[in-house]
Amino acid sequence: MTVQYSDVQVGDQIPLLEPRPIDRTTLALYCGASGDHNPIHVDIDFARKARMPDVFAHGMLSAAYLGRLLTQWVPQAQIRSLALRFTGITQLGHIPTCTGTITEKFEADGEQRVRLQIRCGNQHGEEKLAGEAVVALA
Protein backbone atom coordinates (compact mmCIF):
# COMPACT_ATOMS: atom_id res chain seq x y z
CA MET A 1 0.00 0.00 0.00
CA THR A 2 1.33 3.42 -0.98
CA VAL A 3 1.33 6.10 1.72
CA GLN A 4 -0.72 9.08 0.51
CA TYR A 5 0.05 12.67 1.49
CA SER A 6 -3.67 13.29 2.04
CA ASP A 7 -3.87 10.39 4.52
CA VAL A 8 -1.19 11.61 6.96
CA GLN A 9 -1.28 14.43 9.47
CA VAL A 10 1.26 16.24 11.62
CA GLY A 11 1.62 14.18 14.80
CA ASP A 12 1.02 10.83 13.09
CA GLN A 13 3.47 8.06 13.94
CA ILE A 14 4.84 5.73 11.29
CA PRO A 15 4.97 1.98 12.06
CA LEU A 16 7.45 1.09 14.82
CA LEU A 17 10.57 -0.94 14.00
CA GLU A 18 11.85 -3.17 16.79
CA PRO A 19 14.60 -5.53 15.56
CA ARG A 20 15.88 -8.40 17.66
CA PRO A 21 18.06 -7.64 20.69
CA ILE A 22 21.69 -6.74 20.06
CA ASP A 23 23.91 -9.79 20.51
CA ARG A 24 27.45 -10.78 19.57
CA THR A 25 26.27 -12.47 16.39
CA THR A 26 24.54 -9.29 15.21
CA LEU A 27 27.73 -7.31 15.86
CA ALA A 28 29.93 -9.84 14.04
CA LEU A 29 27.57 -9.90 11.05
CA TYR A 30 27.47 -6.12 10.94
CA CYS A 31 31.29 -6.00 10.99
CA GLY A 32 31.36 -8.20 7.90
CA ALA A 33 28.56 -6.36 6.11
CA SER A 34 29.88 -2.86 6.82
CA GLY A 35 33.61 -3.48 6.70
CA ASP A 36 33.89 -1.78 10.11
CA HIS A 37 36.06 -4.19 12.07
CA ASN A 38 36.81 -1.93 15.03
CA PRO A 39 37.62 -4.44 17.80
CA ILE A 40 35.70 -2.45 20.41
CA HIS A 41 32.55 -3.95 18.85
CA VAL A 42 33.60 -7.62 18.92
CA ASP A 43 36.55 -8.13 21.30
CA ILE A 44 35.60 -8.01 24.98
CA ASP A 45 39.23 -7.69 26.11
CA PHE A 46 39.76 -4.71 23.81
CA ALA A 47 36.51 -3.12 25.02
CA ARG A 48 37.51 -3.55 28.67
CA LYS A 49 40.91 -1.98 28.02
CA ALA A 50 38.95 0.98 26.67
CA ARG A 51 37.10 1.08 30.03
CA MET A 52 33.85 -0.28 28.61
CA PRO A 53 32.05 -3.10 30.43
CA ASP A 54 31.68 -5.12 27.21
CA VAL A 55 31.48 -4.71 23.45
CA PHE A 56 28.69 -2.51 22.11
CA ALA A 57 26.89 -1.84 18.85
CA HIS A 58 28.28 0.27 16.03
CA GLY A 59 26.52 3.61 15.88
CA MET A 60 25.97 3.05 12.19
CA LEU A 61 24.08 -0.18 12.93
CA SER A 62 21.47 1.90 14.74
CA ALA A 63 21.55 4.36 11.83
CA ALA A 64 20.83 1.45 9.49
CA TYR A 65 17.85 0.52 11.63
CA LEU A 66 16.52 4.06 11.21
CA GLY A 67 16.97 3.70 7.46
CA ARG A 68 14.95 0.48 7.64
CA LEU A 69 12.28 2.28 9.70
CA LEU A 70 11.79 4.64 6.76
CA THR A 71 12.00 2.03 4.00
CA GLN A 72 9.42 -0.21 5.67
CA TRP A 73 7.08 2.80 5.37
CA VAL A 74 7.97 4.14 1.89
CA PRO A 75 10.25 3.02 -0.97
CA GLN A 76 13.86 4.24 -0.65
CA ALA A 77 13.47 6.39 -3.77
CA GLN A 78 11.03 8.62 -1.86
CA ILE A 79 13.55 9.58 0.85
CA ARG A 80 14.83 13.10 0.17
CA SER A 81 17.05 13.64 3.22
CA LEU A 82 18.21 11.92 6.37
CA ALA A 83 20.17 13.58 9.17
CA LEU A 84 21.19 11.82 12.38
CA ARG A 85 23.10 12.50 15.56
CA PHE A 86 24.43 9.91 17.97
CA THR A 87 23.23 10.42 21.54
CA GLY A 88 24.04 7.18 23.36
CA ILE A 89 25.64 3.74 23.23
CA THR A 90 23.63 0.63 22.38
CA GLN A 91 24.79 -2.16 24.68
CA LEU A 92 24.50 -5.92 24.29
CA GLY A 93 20.97 -7.02 25.12
CA HIS A 94 19.40 -3.70 24.17
CA ILE A 95 16.38 -3.96 21.91
CA PRO A 96 16.56 -1.16 19.34
CA THR A 97 13.24 0.67 19.23
CA CYS A 98 12.87 2.95 16.21
CA THR A 99 10.09 5.49 15.91
CA GLY A 100 9.10 8.29 13.58
CA THR A 101 6.62 11.13 13.95
CA ILE A 102 5.45 13.48 11.22
CA THR A 103 6.30 17.03 12.25
CA GLU A 104 5.52 18.97 9.06
CA LYS A 105 3.69 18.69 5.74
CA PHE A 106 4.92 20.90 2.91
CA GLU A 107 5.57 21.18 -0.82
CA ALA A 108 9.01 21.54 -2.40
CA ASP A 109 10.29 21.08 -5.94
CA GLY A 110 6.78 20.21 -7.10
CA GLU A 111 6.45 17.37 -4.57
CA GLN A 112 4.29 16.84 -1.53
CA ARG A 113 6.64 16.03 1.35
CA VAL A 114 6.63 15.31 5.05
CA ARG A 115 9.31 15.94 7.63
CA LEU A 116 9.70 13.32 10.34
CA GLN A 117 11.42 13.34 13.69
CA ILE A 118 13.06 9.92 13.97
CA ARG A 119 14.60 8.21 16.96
CA CYS A 120 16.31 4.96 17.89
CA GLY A 121 16.17 4.12 21.56
CA ASN A 122 16.13 0.95 23.60
CA GLN A 123 13.57 -0.98 25.61
CA HIS A 124 14.24 1.28 28.61
CA GLY A 125 13.31 4.43 26.69
CA GLU A 126 16.93 5.64 26.50
CA GLU A 127 17.68 7.52 23.27
CA LYS A 128 20.66 6.32 21.20
CA LEU A 129 20.16 8.21 17.91
CA ALA A 130 17.93 11.13 16.97
CA GLY A 131 17.35 12.88 13.71
CA GLU A 132 15.05 13.94 10.98
CA ALA A 133 14.06 12.75 7.55
CA VAL A 134 12.19 14.28 4.63
CA VAL A 135 10.08 11.96 2.49
CA ALA A 136 8.10 12.60 -0.71
CA LEU A 137 4.58 11.20 -0.76
CA ALA A 138 2.09 10.71 -3.58
UniProtKB/TrEMBL annotation:
It comes from Zestomonas carbonaria. It comes from the Bacteria. GO terms for cellular component: fatty acid synthase complex. Residues 16-93 form the MaoC-like domain. GO terms for molecular function: fatty acid synthase activity. This is MaoC-like domain-containing protein. The lineage of its organism: Bacteria, Pseudomonadati, Pseudomonadota, Gammaproteobacteria, Pseudomonadales. Pfam families: MaoC_dehydratas. GO terms for biological process: fatty acid biosynthetic process. PANTHER family: (3R)-HYDROXYACYL-ACP DEHYDRATASE SUBUNIT HADB, 3-HYDROXYACYL-THIOESTER DEHYDRATASE HTDX-RELATED.
